Amino acid sequence: MKLQRTTLVLILLAFGLGAFVYYYEIRGATQRSEVSESKKRIFSFTADDIQSLTIKKGSDNIVLERSGTQSPPKWLLKAPQTSPASDASVSYLTDLLVKGQINRTISSPTSQLNEFSLDLPQATIEIKLKNQQTHKLILGKPDFSNNFLYAQTDPSAKPDATANILLVSKDFQNAVNRDISEWTQAGDNPEQSSPLPLPTFNTSSPTPKN
């Protein structure tokens, strides 16, 4: 009887040890890996969190706003003209914002931002979320390898001595450097806002056959 009790205790200890190893080493490692991956992302919000996007390139502004409906168009182009927006072009940009990762971070004095073209950036993306929070992504010039762009997120208004410069995907350059026609829904004519003509029906009585 004493031997059976000892065996039972050993089995319970082995089971408990196995459960500890599973939850801490296996599941815990997965969770730690997910946390590590999230730290590498540029932003932590999701695509559904985004309410509007403003792309500033010099004096040109492109303003995109979620339409609030589930059916197309899901996005509206609000400036420089008003029309349904291309879901494909908007999705390409939002995917980069929510899934894009930081390749590397460089610490640089704020006085040297011009070396990365972040003082006069090629584009600035302003993101407004549904909870009214705002974020900003400033895109500078390509790095020496021409594989990444120098960028800065949510720069502080305070004159800090140093700034974190990010290396992000060069796909951002393709996402923002679009002609206005690429931001509009295919087949949409922004110059024509009149509704489509209604179909006509023949309401005359049919001629009886003899």
Question: What does this entry look like structurally?
Answer:
The protein contains 4 helices and 9 strands, in the order H-E-E-E-E-H-E-E-E-E-E-H-H. The protein is α+β, with helices and mostly antiparallel strands and 210 residues long. It is extended and about 80 Å long. Strand 8 (148-153) and strand 9 (162-169) form a beta hairpin. It has a 9-stranded antiparallel sheet with strand order 4-3-2-1-6-7-8-9-5. It folds into 2 domains: 1-39; 47-183, no CATH class. It has helices spanning 2-40, 87-99, 171-176, 180-183; strands at 50-57, 60-66, 75-79, 83-84, 104-109, 123-129, 134-142, 148-153, 162-169.
What is the topological layout?
Blueprint: H1 2-40, E1 50-57, E2 60-66, E3 75-79, E4 83-84, H2 87-99, E5 104-109, E6 123-129, E7 134-142, E8 148-153, E9 162-169, H3 171-176, H4 180-183
Antiparallel strand pairs: 1-2, 1-6, 2-3, 3-4, 5-9, 6-7, 7-8, 8-9
* Mean pLDDT rating: 80
Q: Could you describe the largest sheet, including whether it forms a barrel?
A: 9 strands, antiparallel
In DSSP terms (H or I, runs of 4 or more residues), the helix count works out at: 4
Please identify the structural class as seen in this structure. Answer: alpha+beta
Low-confidence stretches: 24-38, 189-210
End-to-end distance, in Å? 109 Å
What order do the SSEs take from the amino end to the carboxyl end, as H and E?
HEEEEHEEEEEHH
Give the percentage of residues in beta strands: 25-35%
Q: How many domains comprise the coordinates?
A: 2
Percentage of residues assigned to helices? 25-40%
- Compute the number of strand runs: 9
